[in-house]
Amino acid sequence: MLEPTLNWSVYMLHCADGTLYTGIAKDLTARVATHNAGKGAKYTRRRLPVRLVWSEPTENRSTASKREYAVKQLNRRQKLALVSTT
Fold it and tell me: Which residues constitute the domain of residue 80?
């Protein structure tokens, strides 16, 4: 049996205004560059530059989306605790 490929990631960005943004991406490096080019999510466009502070690889888009939802349900303190564990 083949091992699953971890090709999707859940990630968290620290925005210039101090807020946190969570999303998913297949190519994390390219996605962060897209955010910083002002072509990412509407939320981050007004909060540039952004810095990657946490990411977690997942097996597929479905798993990434479910984990993204779970992370978005955390409060700020919990998110910062998650960031500090990496």
Answer: 8-84
